[in-house]
Amino acid sequence: MNPDRLFPPEPQLRALARAIFDSAADAPILSPHGHTDPRWFAEDAAFPDPTQLFVIPDHYVFRMLHSQGVPLESLGIAPQDGGPAETDLRKIWQTFADHYHLFRGTPSRLWLDHAFATVFGIEEDFGPATAMAFYDRIAEALTTPAFRPRALYKRFDIEALATTEGALDDLRWHKMIRDSGWDGRVITTYRPDAVTDPDTPDFRKNVESFCAMAGTDAGSFARYLDAHRARRAYFRDIGGATATDHGHPTATTRNLSPAATEALYQKVLSGRADAAEREDFRGQMLTEMAKLSLEDGMVMQIHPGSFRNHSTAIFDRFGRDKGFDIPTRTDYVRDLRPLLDAIGHERDLRIILFTLDETAYARELAPLAGVYPCLRLGPAWWFHDSFEGMWRYRQMTTETAGFYNTTGFNDDTRAYLSIPARHDVARRVDAAYLATLVGTGRLSETDAFDLMQDLTHRLARQAYRL
Amino acid sequence: MNPDRLFPPEPQLRALARAIFDSAADAPILSPHGHTDPRWFAEDAAFPDPTQLFVIPDHYVFRMLHSQGVPLESLGIAPQDGGPAETDLRKIWQTFADHYHLFRGTPSRLWLDHAFATVFGIEEDFGPATAMAFYDRIAEALTTPAFRPRALYKRFDIEALATTEGALDDLRWHKMIRDSGWDGRVITTYRPDAVTDPDTPDFRKNVESFCAMAGTDAGSFARYLDAHRARRAYFRDIGGATATDHGHPTATTRNLSPAATEALYQKVLSGRADAAEREDFRGQMLTEMAKLSLEDGMVMQIHPGSFRNHSTAIFDRFGRDKGFDIPTRTDYVRDLRPLLDAIGHERDLRIILFTLDETAYARELAPLAGVYPCLRLGPAWWFHDSFEGMWRYRQMTTETAGFYNTTGFNDDTRAYLSIPARHDVARRVDAAYLATLVGTGRLSETDAFDLMQDLTHRLARQAYRL
Amino acid sequence: MNPDRLFPPEPQLRALARAIFDSAADAPILSPHGHTDPRWFAEDAAFPDPTQLFVIPDHYVFRMLHSQGVPLESLGIAPQDGGPAETDLRKIWQTFADHYHLFRGTPSRLWLDHAFATVFGIEEDFGPATAMAFYDRIAEALTTPAFRPRALYKRFDIEALATTEGALDDLRWHKMIRDSGWDGRVITTYRPDAVTDPDTPDFRKNVESFCAMAGTDAGSFARYLDAHRARRAYFRDIGGATATDHGHPTATTRNLSPAATEALYQKVLSGRADAAEREDFRGQMLTEMAKLSLEDGMVMQIHPGSFRNHSTAIFDRFGRDKGFDIPTRTDYVRDLRPLLDAIGHERDLRIILFTLDETAYARELAPLAGVYPCLRLGPAWWFHDSFEGMWRYRQMTTETAGFYNTTGFNDDTRAYLSIPARHDVARRVDAAYLATLVGTGRLSETDAFDLMQDLTHRLARQAYRL
C-alpha cells in the first residue's frame, strides 16, 4: 500500500495532506449508516470462509465479473428455482482472482487490497497465481479469536456502527447484543419501505403484520401511523436507533390533507391504486415520517433514485440485490417541496439527503441544504463512494453549502472487513481536498486541521445524534 | 491573503499563472451586469454601517446562517407583517461573526476576507473574538470621504458599472448621476420581467402603468410593443443602457404568429390564461425582445432556470429574495429553438446566455454558442460564481465554443464592496486556467497573455457594446 | 509541438506519463469507427488542395467561424439553391487563417497544428501572415506520391480503418479496394438509419429500394428483416464489416410482439404513423438489429442523442451536416431496458454505447456497462473527443465500469490527415490518466503499462472483433 495514496502529487500539497490525515489518525470510526448483519455481533461466531466473506455477498464484485461474461452461478449465487450453482468455495475464489484485473482503477480494488494487507497482513499481490495462498491465509485467520466480529470491532476502533432493519424486524439480534453486556455500540436503523411502498410484494400483508406487531390494526391511517410510532419507539428502545432510512425510487413528497391521506391509504391497501397513486402514497409517507421525526427526534435519511432490479431476467431468476440497481435522474427541487413546505423550517428536524445523480449536487442539493435548516447532505453514495466520486462531491457542494451542511462519511456496506478501508479512503480524500484548499489559498491551515476533525467524527456524531 | 491564491500548486504553473495575472493588473474593472443601487452614485452619501453593508442585504450570507438554524429575524431581516426583528446592528454583526466558520471553503469567505483586507486594510482574522474591533474599524472608515460610493468607484478602477432597473423605473437616480456631471460611468439595464411575466403580482396593472409611462395604452399588443420601444429608448437615453436582462423560470421561447400573439396578450392581460399560456407569453416575449434588440442594438441577456421563492413559508413571511431561489434543470436546445429559428442568424443580434444548470455547458450551451452567430455565453453565474464553478465553466465550454464565444466576467452583485474581490477571483481563475493550458501544451504562452487581455476587459467591452 | 503536451504538470507524474505513452509508441492505429471516404483508398488519387482537405468538409472548423459571423458561403459552402459561394480556394484558406485565433484552447487547434507539423513538417505557426506559405507547402506535398491515401495509411501505421456506409450503398469502392489486392484493411460499417428511421426523407422509397437490393420486397416485416440479413451479409462479405452503427435521436428501444411490429411496420411505410409511432419503430429496430447481431456476430454501435439540423434556416439553405447537430439529454436506463430485457444477457452479443450527454457517464452508462455482459462503452464522442472530454470520461466511468468495459479510442472522423493527431491525443490522455492513478496510489505501475496496451489497441481489436 502506497502510504501517500490518494494525496495530491505535488510534493508540498502531499506533505500537507499527509499531515492533515495524520492529525485524525486517532479518530474512531463512526459508521452511522450501513448494512452489516447484527447477528454477527450477537453471536460473535467465526466468519465461515473467504469466499462467503468477500465474493458472494459483494454486489460490486459479482456485477463486475458478470459484466464480463462470468455467470452468477459460477460465483456461487444460486438461482431461486433451485437450479445449480457452484458450491466449491475455492473454485469460486479462483474465478474471482482470475478476473481481478477487471477491478484495476476501481474502489473495490482499493478496499480489497487494503483489507488483505491490513486486516490479514498479506504482503503479496492478489491474483490468479496467489489466489489459493490467499485463501489459505484468510481461512486460517478466520478461525482465530482475533477475527471474530467483536474483536474486529475493537481492532477497527469503531465507536458506533448502525445496521439497517426493516420495520417488520423483531430486532432479536440487537436485543441479544444489548443483553450480552458487550460494550460495543451496534445500533439499528428504522427502514419502513416494506410498509410504506405499495410496490413491495405482499404490501397489504406487510402492513397488517406491522400493525399487529405494534398492537394495533391496519383499519385506519391513524392507527397505521400509530403503529409507526410504536415501532419507531421499539427500534429506539431495543435497537438504540437514532435514525430512519427511506429508499425510494424518486424524491417525491406529498402534503395531502388528512382526508385525502386516509382515502389514499385505503386505496393502496386495497391493491387498486394505480402507479401515480402508489407514488403519491410513498411521497406522503416521507412527509409523515418527517413529522414523526419531529415528534421523536429520529434523524431521517432519504436515499432516492435507484431503479431497482433493472433486469427482469436476473430478478426472476436470482431475485433482488444482484447488482442490477441502476441510478436515475432525480429531481429534488420540485419533489421535496411539499415536505419542505409542510415542515422544512422546523429547527429540530434533521433530514439527510443522498443522491445517485451527481448533477443534483451543485444545481439542487447544495442550494437546498445551504438554506433549509432541516437539510443536510449525506456523503457520496454507492457508485460514488470512491476517490473521484468524493472529490466531485466536495467540489460541487462546498462552495454553496459549506462543510457544515454535510454529515461526514457513511460506509453503507455489508462488507464488514472493508470498513476500515472505506473510512481510510474517505479520510484521505478529505485530507487531500483540505490540503488543496489550503495550497490554493482558499482555506487557512488552522481551519483545515479543525475541519479534519469535523469531517472524520464530529459531523457524523452531530448529524446522527450519536 | 495568500498572494498566489487560486493559482495551480505546481511551482512552474504557479509562476506562469502569476505572470499572466500580473500582466492584466492594470486592466480596469468592467461590470456590465450587476445590482448595485444607482442612488449610491447619485447621492454619494456615506454607507450607514457594517451590518447594513455586509450582512442584511447579502443573501449568500444570511442563507448560510439560516441553514444552520439562525433565524432571519436575528439577522435584522424583518417579517412583512411587522413582527419583531433584531435592530441592534452590533448584535447582528456579532451573530454573523460567531458563525463565520460556516463559510470555510466558500466564495463568500474569499470575498469578505478580501474586502476586509484590501478595502479596509484590516490584517487580523475575522471571527467571534475580533467582531467588534472589525465593526469599529469599518464603521469609522465608512464615515470618511474615501469610502463614499464615488470615491470607491475610482479606487476600484471601474470603467463602467451597470445596474439593473425594472421597466417601470423612472431612472431618477441615473438622471441625477448624469446631471451631476460626475465622470463615472454608471449605466442601467432594461429588465422588463414585471411586464413580460404574467406570473408577476399585479401584472395587468404593471402593463397599464408601463404603457402609460410610454405615452400609449395597453389596448393592443402592437401598442404594448411600442411601449417597450419607447421605454428601451428611455433606458438608453437617460440611463445609458446598452443591454436588457430577462430572468425567466425556463429558457422557453416561442415564435407565434401576430394574430396568435395578440390573442395570447389579451388573454394574459385578462388574467384568464392558464400556466401553459403564461409560459407561452413569456416565451413569445423573449423572441419579441430579441427582435427589438435587432432594431435598437441592445444586447439581450437571458438568465433562466431559477425556481424563485421555493419556500412558501419564507415568502409569505419575509417576501422575495431571501435566499430561497433554487436552480432547476434547464433545456436550451429545444427551448431556444423558436427564437433561433426566427432570428438566430442575424449577425447584428447579440444574446448572452447564462445558466444555473452546469450540465448544459458541454451538452447544450457550448455547442449552441459555438455555431449560432448571435449567441454568447455569459460567465459562471450565481452559485457558480466561485473558483470551482468558473473552472468547470472553462473546462466544459472552451473546447467546443472557444474563448471568443464567451463574454468575460460579470460580478452580478449588489455587494458593492465585494466587486474588486469578485473580479480578482475571476482573473485569478482565468490566469490559472490559461497557465494550465500552456503547461499542458494546449496553448502557446503568447496566446495566453493575449487571451488574458480578452478575458479581463476586451470581451466584456465587445459583448456589451460598452 | 510540446513533446510533453497533455501530460500532468507535476514533474514525477509527467515523467511517468511520458514513459507509459512511449511504451505504446509502436502500437498501430486501429480506427474501428469513422467517416473517411472509401473512394480515396480505392482510387488512391491525390487529394485536391489544402482547402478542400482541411476547411470545407470539417464541421468543427466552419461552425466555429460561422459562430463569429463568417458566412458559410465565404468558406466555400454552397447553398443548395445554387446561390453563390466563394470558389477561390486560397481566399477561403486565408479567411480560415485570419480566424485561427478562435480555435485557441480547442481540440481542432491541436489536431491542425499536429497535422501541419508532423504530416507536412511545417515548423512555423499557422496564422494570417503564414497562410499562403502553408497553402503552397501543403498543396505541393499533396501532389507527391507520399501523400496519396494509401501511402499515408502506411505512414500513419494503420492496422484497420472502418468507414461507414448506408444500407443502400453498393460498396463499389470497398469492392474495388478488395479487388485491387492492396494489403491495407479498409472495411465498411453497416449504417441502416435511412431504412430504419421513418423520419428520413423518402423513407418508403428507401425501404423498397433496400428490399429490392436484397432480392426481396417490402411487403412484410419478415421480408424487410430478411433484407437486413442479406445486406448485413453483403457488408461483411464485400466490405469486411464487423460492426453496425445506429444514429438515433434518442436511446429508445422497444420489444414489441411480432404482430405489433408487423402492424407498426405497415403503418410507418404508409406514411400515416405519428411521431410516437415513428419513435416506436426506431426503438423496435434497435432491438431487431441487436437480435440480428446475435445471429451474425456483428458488433452493434448506438450513437444517440443528437438533435440534427437544429437550425431550420441553415438546413433549408445548405442541407444537413452543417455544424448544427446539437446534443440533447439522453436517458439510457429506461430507454434501453426493452432491448436489454429482450436479449441483454446473451454473452455473444456486443453493443457499444456512445453519448453526447456526459451526465449519463457516472449515473447511467458506467452502472449499466458494469453489469450487463453485452454492453461496452464507446470512447468520448464528438464534442467530447478532446482532452477534457476524455478526462471526464475516464474519471466518471472507470470506478464503476472499470477499463475493461470500455473499447479504446475511435477517431470518428472524415478528416483523414487528423487521424494520427486524434489518436495521439487519446493516447496522451490515457497515459496521463494512468500515470495519475499510479501517482496517487490507485494503480500499480505494472498494471498501468499493461493497461496502456489495452487502451491503445487490444480493447479496440476485441470490442470490434477485428
UniProtKB/TrEMBL annotation, chains A, B, C:
Catalysed reactions, semicolon-separated: D-glucuronate = D-fructuronate
Record GO terms (molecular function): glucuronate isomerase activity
Enzyme class: isomerase
NAD listed as a keyword: no
Keywords: Isomerase
InterPro entries: Metal_Hydrolase (IPR032466), Uronate_isomerase (IPR003766)
EC number of this enzyme: 5.3.1.12
Pfam families recorded: UxaC (PF02614)
Family under the similarity heading: Belongs to the metallo-dependent hydrolases superfamily. Uronate isomerase family.
Official protein name in the record: Uronate isomerase
UniProt source species: Roseicyclus marinus
